[in-house]
Amino acid sequence: xAFVDPDSLSVKFDGHLTLRTVSANHATLLQALSKNKSVxxxxxxxxxxxxxxxxxxxxxxxxxxxxGRTISIAKPASGQLHDLLDRSGFLQTMSxxxxxxxxxxxxxx
Length: 109
Known about the structure:
Elements: E1 8-13, H1 22-35, E2 38-43, H2 51-66, E3 70-73, H3 79-87, H4 96-103
Parallel strand pairs: 1-2, 2-3
Helix pairs in contact: 1-2
């Protein structure tokens, strides 16, 4: 039997994670973080993704931290997300905490 934390929620984004969908994705994350202590974000590896998603996730991390919540991504960045992190300079300036969040490197998230 698997243990399910009642204060935890997994949010699965379907479709593109771009400027066109950032408002809806923002609302989804804000609602999830306001009602749960821990939120895990999941999406397909081949999803179309742009810088607005990185900005949304960084904002969500800041909000979660100030609100006593946690947010994570379900799996390490790969594919288009990893490429975007590289092109935008995130990988070059990543702190250990950022590496745990985006790449699942180091200690547990």
